[in-house]
């Protein structure tokens, strides 16, 4: 992209085997529900990119949704959302 006013911001999050979804909040997409991150293949790494002005300043964090199965036969699904501040 040949745009001298904007740049790409890429977010990375290292989840775990139970991480199902990661959304970044506090970014340019916060007003529309945040920036959803995609899982990289079958790894624990999530990533997402957005375009913002060069002089942008943001404080951001993420919400990680973890899902696991419990019970005698693993038939009960439990999901938990956790807010994670930026490092």
User: How large is the radius of gyration?
Assistant: 16 Å
The major pleated sheet works out as: 6 strands, antiparallel
Assembly of the depicted chains? single chain
- Tally of separate helices: 0
Give me the strand/helix succession: EEEEEE
Sheet-strand content, in percent, reads over 45%
Helix percent reads: under 10%
Shape: elongated
Count of β-strands? 6
Mean pLDDT: 86
Identify low-pLDDT runs.
none
Could you walk me through the main structural features you see in this protein, from its secondary elements to its overall organization?
The chain is mainly β. The protein is built from no helices and six strands. The chain has strands at 6-14, 19-25, 35-39, 45-53, 61-70, 76-85.
What are the salient characteristics of this protein?
87 residues; mainly beta; six-stranded antiparallel beta sheet; 6 strands; 57% strand; elongated
What's the layout of helices and strands?
Layout: E1 6-14, E2 19-25, E3 35-39, E4 45-53, E5 61-70, E6 76-85
Antiparallel strand pairs: 1-4, 2-3, 2-5, 3-4, 5-6
In short:
The chain is mainly beta and 87 residues long.
């Amino acid at each position: 992209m040949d745009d001298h006013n904007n740049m790409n911001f890429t977010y990375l999050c290292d989840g775990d085997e139970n991480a199902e979804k990661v959304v970044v909040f506090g970014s340019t997409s916060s007003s529309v529900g945040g920036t959803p991150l995609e899982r990289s293949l079958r790894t624990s790494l999530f990533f997402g990119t957005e375009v913002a002005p060069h002089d942008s300043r943001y404080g951001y964090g993420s919400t990680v949704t973890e899902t696991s199965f419990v019970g005698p036969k693993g038939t009960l699904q439990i999901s938990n959302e956790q807010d994670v501040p930026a490092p």
